[in-house]
Amino acid sequence: MRFGIFYEHQLPRPWGAGAELRLYQDALDQVELADRLGFDYVWEVEHHFLEEYSHSAAPEVFLAAASQRTVNMRLGHGIVQLPPQVNHPARVAERIATLDLVSGGRVDFGTGEASSAAELGGFGVRRDRKRDMWQDSIDAVTRMFVEEPFAGWQSPYIRMPPRNVIPKPVQKPHPPLWVACSRRETIHLAARNGIGALSFAFVHPEDAGKWVDDYYRLIASEECVPAGFAVNANLAVVLPMMCHEDPEVARERGSLGAGFFAYALGHYYGPSKHAPGTGSIWDDFAAKSPKLGVRGDDPLAGALGSPEQLVELVRRYEAVGVDQMIFVLQAGPNRHEHICESLELFGKKVLPIFAEGRDQREQAKAERLAPAVEAALARREPARRLATPYVIDEDAEVAPTIRSRARGVFGRIVEGRTDAQLERWFGPGQQRVLFALMARQFDPAKAFGFKGEIEFRLGRGSVWTIQVRGDKARAVQGSARNAAVILELPAADVLRLIAGVANPAALLMSGKLKITGDPAFASRVPEMFGAPSPY
Predict the structure, then answer these.
(1) What's this model's pTM, rounded to 2 decimal places?
(2) What is the rounded CA–CA span in Å between residue 66 and residue 96?
(3) What span, in angstroms and rounded, lies between the C-alpha atoms of 20 and 5?
């Protein structure tokens, strides 16, 4: 059995000055204490717009701070929301890998879809597509961890060209994967994807045992096709916790927080209507809940008690095969000092009982599952490798228009031709057409009030000038009377620039491109005449 602590960062109204600051600073103090006491995990949720219930919109920031105040605890994203409207897969991969680096390889990557109306509607995620989005995104993200470069993605939800997504995580092939589970069918989903199940259903040990049996049966079956490139066979349950030598004191201190946790959860995930910024879930809870807490037979009350009661409870979950118990102490109005006292007492009287022989039991479990894991990974499609190197093409990637496709064709024609071949083709007639088209595409908004002349010297006596007057431009053959800037480069390289197979910075460094006048203004010239902005 492993042990973790879990944070929603709950903050019931009314909110006083500095309330969120204290909430976060207290949580970091609690995490540091839990690490010293021997807790194995800290789990941090990602939620948006769920005021009072969860003020945890940027878990990666909190976990990064926690990584610098802890030594041994693993840092669990419990969970990252994967619909692309909420988190683009590349940003998820980058953040997870960065956290893995700053923590020295201590990240567990929990994933989920989100299901509250506040979040789905806020980000424009369709409820009937969020499961497909999750499956699509987790496949893409895990490939970003292992593919160099990531070979790109084309799906109804994600469109991304090949890129090398960096940095890469410390843990290979990637941090352990988990998914949030609230029902039996999502436990099955976790097992079929070969990932850990984070159960937020608050179930009794006997019910949890049925889920464990289902989970490990599917992990060992042919239905298991891993979502990632490693299998994480673990099932965790979450419960509110408060520990005191006197169980009545523990219940008194923790019952209100557990009750609010359940009530606020039902508020956002049930039929209740919420008025952002004006409603008070705490007031509703206080008015509608006569006992302001939880009953003794409620699973939410199971971990509110003495150390001896908690030992007995943990043994029941351990006996049915649960791998990790995650405790919610920061809930509702629970007080910081009571949370710290509970952690201290649990760490002193409960944790040591379950530490003995744990490593050996986990090793035996890994050996028992090894054949099933190997068979499951053989069913997973491998990482991809590009047959030929991919070259970034902004036009084709961002705006696959007729113009960009034509430019791609032109690039293939120009690439590989010698200077002599290109200069023979790019004679006076073709130059006239080119500069006339440039003048026609002049964009006054990109000129920022410029009026004057720009001279182009193409070698072998070929000189062209574009004159800008007001919001119009025209091309004339010959030198400028008073050029604001003079750009001098071989005619062949003009074609290569147009085709996108030459780099202006490289031409400048090699001496092929010479600028007379203001270099900063010169850098804006292509954009003034229809080229995409480089910034």
Answers:
(1) 0.81
(2) 14
(3) 19
What class, spelled out in words, does domain 394-528 have in CATH?
Answer: alpha beta
> Are the C-beta atoms of residues 151 and 385 closer than 8 Å to each other?
yes
pLDDT digits (tens, 9 = 90+) for 59-114: 999 999 999 999 999 999 999 999 999 999 999 999 999 999 999 999 999 999 99
Sign of torsion, CA 77 79 82 87?
negative
What is the identity of the amino acid at 140? Answer: A
Burial degree of 533 (CB within 10 A; 0-12, 13-18, 19+): exposed
- pLDDT computed for residue 178 by the predictor: 98
Pairwise CA distance, residues 452 & 307, whole Å: 83
Report how far residue 199's alpha carbon sits from residue 347's, in angstroms, rounded to the nearest whole number.
Answer: 23
Terminal alpha carbon distance of the chain: 52
453: β partners: 467, 483
Residue 237 contacts residue 391 (beta carbons within 8 Å)? no
Section 359-368 average pLDDT: 95
The CATH number corresponding to 2-379 among 3.30.2420.10, 1.10.10.60, 3.20.20.30, 3.20.20.150 equals: 3.20.20.30
CA atoms within 13 A on the CB side of 226: 28
Instruction: List, as one string, the DSSP characters of 478-527.
Output: S--SSEEEEEE--HHHHHHHHHT-S-HHHHHHHTSSEEEE-HHHHHHHHH
Please give the average per-residue pLDDT across 225-236, as a whole number: 98
Q: What are the tokens at 408? A: 């791609």
Query: What is the domain partition of the chain in residue ranges?
Result: 2-379, 394-528
Nearest to 525 by CA among 439, 459, 457: 439
